[in-house]
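On clarity, I found the account of how folds are encoded harder to follow than it need be. An entry of this sort, consisting of the sequence and the corresponding backbone structure tokens, reads as follows:
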Amino acid sequence: MKVVILAGGFGTRLEEETQYKPKPMVEIGEKPILWHIMKEYSYYGFNEFIVCAGYKQQMIKQWFADYFTNCSDVTFDFSGGKNDIIYHEATIEPWKVTIVDTGYGTMTGGRVKRVQKYIGDETFMLTYGDGVCDVDISKLLEYHEKHSKIATLTAVKLEQQKGVLDITENCSVKSFREKNYSDGALINAGYMVLEPKIFDYIDGDDSVLETDALEKLVSDGELMSYVHRGFWQCMDNIREKNILEEMWRNNVAPWKKWKD
């Protein structure tokens, strides 16, 4: 099963990094967050990826063009007046990666529509190129297959950052307590499973996946949620990037299930 990753946006809220590179190439532990996401799927046996690139898409292509060399011991032999390159031991994943330039200003739904020819008439997975999660992807897929709807998205609790107030009608504070898990709102974390019928819900480049296609699916009763109560973290700004970096540096990254 193919995994589609949305990786074409501008990432304006992380401009400290994205003025130089596309957001999915911002590094956590010296590897792009895109690599981390792919490693998550690969852990569960999904190794074929379609990357919906756009902004600075050439940098994503170049990174993968160099990946085999960077994961190998290499001899550059110039002794015969030529440039002979000899690859020795390589530590590399069994990935097949198709990188598609889906346009500079194309919306999320439009990017998915543009890679339809690479997906074909089969079920596929879709996620965003700026967030990591420890969801059990095998169980997510099993859940999707059971309900026979067009789409499943992974829902997580948006963490409540502040204490909770119980306020009366006259605005006096009745009680105050610390936040807990149940206070947060469920949000779309990506990590979706989609049937090819999803393409019928996307009109073109200006189609926004979240407000067009998914809302139409809701109206038709074709969207299900898989509630994940574990870890999820997006990387929308430099503070969140630093959170992920610190987790990785301290060897407490919940999304890292693979072995080095």
Observations:
- The longest strand covers residues 151-158.
- The mean pLDDT is 91.
- The longest helix spans residues 238-249.
